[in-house]
Specification:
This protein is globular. It has one domain. It is mostly helical. The longest helix has 27 residues.
């Protein structure tokens, strides 16, 4: 799990730091989980050069997250620590999107960062249950609607 986080998850999550350069990062990231990768999620060579298993579905981190109850204490700690980091990154992204006028100013960044975190688990569960990708995209678009400034 540590190797996966370093080579796959961290390169994706660091882009939440730079909203100006990656304004669509949240949507690209979700698309990457829905479609088993997305070339716009990271330009980090660690991520680009990963060899995905042929039958991989979605994101290994999300699979571990939703099955956390069956993992050992060391792996749980790694996942919980990275969860805190992810939520902080989502919060930073929301605040920057609000400041740029893309997200509603009246949403609570802390609450919605946890909400976004939950959407990644939802996508993974839907993928594992063989929900059609178009249906998943529609569900996520509805779920993210409160964020977007209309």
């Amino acid at each position: 799990m540590n190797k996966y986080i370093v080579h796959s998850a961290k390169p994706i999550h660091k882009n939440y730091d730079n909203y100006k350069k990656y304004p669509n990062h949240l949507f690209n990231h979700l698309d990457g989980v829905i479609n088993d990768g997305n070339k716009f999620v990271s330009d980090d060579l660690n991520y680009i050069n990963i060899k995905r298993p042929k039958k991989a579905i979605g994101c290994m981190l999300q699979r571990y997250t939703i099955n956390k109850f069956s993992l050992g204490p060391i792996t749980k700690k790694v996942i919980n620590t990275f969860k805190i980091y992810r939520i902080k990154q989502f919060k930073k992204y929301i605040i920057n999107a609000q400041n740029a006028g893309a997200f509603n100013k009246n949403i609570d960044p802390i609450y919605y960062s946890k909400y976004i975190y939950a959407q990644f688990s939802l996508v993974q569960i839907l993928r594992l249950n063989t929900t059609p990708k178009d249906e998943i995209k529609n569900i996520i678009n509805i779920a993210l609607k409160p964020l977007i400034k209309s």
